[in-house]
Amino acid sequence: MARALVGWCFFLVAAFAVGVVGQHPPYTPPPSHHTPPPQSQVPSYANGQPYRVNYNKPNRIFTCEDDWGDTCIAQCPDLCPKSCSMSCSYCETTCSTSRCVEFPGTSCGDPSFTGGDGVTYYFHGRKDQDFCIVSDVDLHINAHFIGNHNPVNERNFTWIQAISVTFGDHRLFVGARKAVEWEEDEDHIEITFNGEPINIDTANNAQWVSKVQSGLSVQRTDIVNSIKVDFANVFSISANVVPITDEDSKIHNYGKTAKDNLVHLDLRFKFHSLTDVVDGVLGQTYRSNYVNKMNVTAKMPIMGGTPKYFSSGLFSTDCAVSKFQHNGGASHVRAMAA
User: Fold this and answer.
1) Phi, psi for 45 (deg, rounded to 5)
2) Cα–Cα distance between 244 and 110 in angstroms, integer?
3) Whose CA, among 28, 122, 141, 182, lies 20 to 30 Å from 277?
């Protein structure tokens, strides 16, 4: 009996061993010589939609840092694989031919603004004139408008070609150079600080830091035509230079000719220290007591009152709704930036 039990146990052990040995080993994929690309630390978006970066596509890829110092990697969507603008603040790319993404503080195209209250509206201004966009106690921003008249439909179109930023005793200028023919790899952006040109290397993330105003810097968010101005604890401005393409003109009846590509700025503003008296085309929408009087149900809500926003010059602070205080503002700005 004992011998039978031992024999039976030996048989079971042998059978188990044969079964294990006879099975195929678990599949192990062969080692890959392709190193997967790094993944974005910040979710990226294209034209307002979530978008996963694909390194196997020829679409243009941008890399920069967002407002919190995290790496942002985003890619032009298939709709515009080579030509799009990038906002590092929001880690988002936007086709130059597509509708602007409606984030608070955005100004783009024939200029539409998205106010601090989240409502998008149009302010057409006038060709070759300046208007105050934001006017506060210690900060004043004007915009210079260019335009085009289409005789076919008797319409006038305008775009923002340059902005001026006045704070304390300082003056910052950001503008788009005119171009008869648009060259995507050519830099069309112009920046000056207190009248002196700011020259920044044409390299992604190249940066200029002011030696006279603490906390002020300008950084390239692309090799050409895209920059971000930061003034610590006061404001952040992203500016992209874009043309009106033939496709844009065909869709919107802009009447563009071969003589001018109507190069202009698409802008995004972020403000950190506005007071509750702020005014201007965009600024007023950040007041806590702001009441929107536009017809927001219209297809194109339009902000009127053009004369009261008119400024006598790009760096003038004399618009009818100006709140800028030359003396009181300077000390407050220095305190905020310190």
Assistant:
1) -135, 150
2) 10
3) 122
CB-CB contact of 337 with 214 (8 Å): yes
**Which tokens hold the place of 39?**
């993944």
Long-range contacts formed by 103-109: CB under 8 A, 24+ apart: 103/268, 105/268, 105/269, 105/270, 105/271, 105/282, 106/267, 106/268, 106/269, 107/133, 107/143, 107/160, 107/266, 107/267, 107/268, 107/269, 107/282, 108/266, 108/267, 109/159, 109/266
- Residue pair 328/275 in contact (Cβ under 8 Å)? The answer is no
pLDDT tens-digit profile of 28-77?
A: 444 444 344 444 457 787 777 788 888 888 888 888 877 677 888 888 88
Quote the pTM value.
Answer: 0.73
Give the chain's residues under pLDDT 50. 1-2, 4-6, 8-40, 97-99, 329-330
Neighbours of 29 (CB within 10 A): 5
Polymer length of the chain: 338
